[in-house]
Specification:
alpha/beta; 8-stranded mixed β-sheet; 8 strands; 42% helix; SDR_fam; oxidoreductase; SDR family NAD(P)-dependent oxidoreductase
Length: 306
Amino acid sequence: MGWTARNIPDQSGRTVVVTGANSGLGFVTARELARRGARTVLACRDEERGSRARDELVAELPEAGPRTELRRLDLGDLASVRAFAKELPDERVDLLINNAGVMALPYGRTADGFERQFGINHLGHFALTGLLLDRLLAAPAPRVVTVSSGLHALANIDIADLNSEHSYRRWVAYARSKTANLLFTHELARLLAGTPLVAAAAHPGYAATNLQTAGVRMEGRKAVEGVIALGNRVVAQSAEAGALPTLYAATAPGVAPDSFTGPRLLGWRGAPAPSWRAPWTLSDVAAERLWAASEQLTGVTYGVPS
């Protein structure tokens, strides 16, 4: 049968931060970690939707109410990322799930002027992880799990055009941002080798969430939205199944640094298993160059132990 949410070890006493926890994969991830006893922080851009998600979670798991908290986080605004990290009261964070993301949006820029997909999917999480690193390293067995995508294989990053200023193709930009997630995980694992922190990545395969339809909905492309919605109903697996690779990477014993977990069956659906990744996501040179550029763009420098 394979690994399921029932296999998640007890999370009592652990503090977990899940970005984008108001819906889809993020909500399922937060709910299942709360079910296993974690103190769970729902980090959401939209406070109204985040509040509804918290109410839904607590209605299903009343015992989790006192240890489930909503905090605002807009990954497209570095001031919001800094405020979130500053105001988070916990002295330690045991688990950070970099889940939030956008997919194939029309061209746009974040509050700080970055191309929207690169800025939210990569730079926002890069800054958040760096700002929480001291609290992660204060935990006895911390993990950082970053959610990438099998579609990273569509494109490598262009270090000379990270913000797609020379040209913009929405699916290429999305793939580059997901490649950036894997290069970030690769370099974080390398820099923190010898510490207890495990940096790992996961992807959901093809899971039915609102991520696929957000871009076309913004443009009013109702026919395309309908086709995608039909695919979500007929072909995709559920958000519950799509969250399993993330939950596995976050909690299963023996998860290796820089591992990449996805669905077993062709990377589309099924129980969590090691996933194929494009060779360029394992390049030390590319990872180092992206890391240096990300520090410069965000102003967040990691205090990595020697």
